Amino acid sequence: MAETLIKVDLKQSAYENEQVHNRWHPDIPMACWVKPGEDFILETYDWTGGFIKNNDSADDVRDIDLSIVHFLSGPVGVHGAEAGDLLVVDLLDIGTKAESQWGFNGFFSKQNGGGFLTEHFPHAQKSIWDFHGLFTKSRHIPNVEFAGLIHPGLIGCLPDPKLLKAWNDREIDFIKTEPDRVPPLANPPFASTAHMGKLTGDSRKKAAAEGARTVPPREHGGNCDIKDLSRGSKIYFPVYVDGAGLSVGDLHFSQGDGEITFCGAIEMAGWVHMRVNLIKGGMAKYGVRNPIFKPSPITPRYDDYLIFEGISVDEAGKQHYLDVHVAYRQACLNAIEYLTKFGYSRAQAYSILGTAPVQGHISGVVDIPNACATLWLPTQIFDFDIRPNADGPIRHVKGGVDLPLSLDRT
Prior knowledge:
Elements: E1 3-6, E2 20-21, E3 32-34, E4 39-44, H1 59-63, E5 72-78, E6 86-96, E7 102-107, E8 124-132, E9 135-138, E10 141-147, E11 151-157, H2 161-176, H3 201-210, E12 217-218, E13 221-222, E14 234-238, E15 244-252, E16 262-268, E17 270-279, H4 282-286, E18 292-294, E19 305-311, H5 324-340, H6 346-355, E20 359-364, E21 372-378, E22 405-406
Parallel strand pairs: 1-4, 3-5
Antiparallel strand pairs: 2-5, 4-17, 5-15, 6-14, 6-17, 7-8, 7-16, 8-9, 8-22, 9-10, 11-13, 11-15, 12-13, 14-18, 15-16, 19-21, 20-21
GO molecular function: hydrolase activity, acting on carbon-nitrogen (but not peptide) bonds, in linear amides
Pfam families: FmdA_AmdA
InterPro entries: FmdA_AmdA, FormamaseFmdA
């Protein structure tokens, strides 16, 4: 049996666990050490450290202080790892904690985080999903059940001082271009809610003031939210510091491509069983600047899809030049509108797209002026036929059930 090197008590504040951190900084001490070739288990909090509760209120999604996230287990030091190496991580297995057989999906308020479709869904809402082995369903979204593909939304290695400075410089400069934007363009360092693992004293204060927030993906990996990076995946991470400093968290039971709800996927606490190895000098040997990976050989078997197209013309009819972001948004909005014809609210439909094994594709980026993106919705997750037919849609979902909603406080 592999040893569990990091344990989390879901009844304990994540801030009290020294083997957990919520910022990226090269001075964060290693929580534990392993040798190349060893396998081990890390337990994780959900990304909010337990702030979101299993209830029928979205007040917690509305009120969460997003500067606390993400809570990551690690860093794990790897003996012999040096800057310029590749850290090879095999995700051997991933699972739910026995005492926490549920997860959540939500939309943040536009005033506190926002999201991909925040102009259409400006208020906080959430759905709770119960786990039944491989499968999940929600009391807030009837007539839907699907198999999960559990994966870490966030995994990566510590940056060195030069890379950390580059992150902070470019993101702070970006914020300055539109400082009053809601939601903001990026999230600068914020010491007050930083958790720096075992680091203490003046070193902790300095690192907390400099530590990069964990919200975006970056060169080291980080919050990439790739649903196919699941059990059986092999990942090649660039190493920037001695020991590598591997951390993981933000586990998802299931997610649609793009994690479009932002409080996205089905967020959960759990554990990751992994093995590490090294390719010495691998960054230069293979020209690696960002992680590369082999996907999981195990995926939910859905082979019938309705595919929704979107082009780079926005909701107001404004033309954009080969803008994939706009095109994918339109594909999502088209799918949401379609699902309302069967009785789902727009919020329920949005939550389905964020949680189910939906595929997103860049389908065309050369035919000026319009990029084309597609959203692939698996039909088999529904207990009724959603395909178009000559008789028109039948309203299978009855009124009276919707996602918990919380209006913004003024």
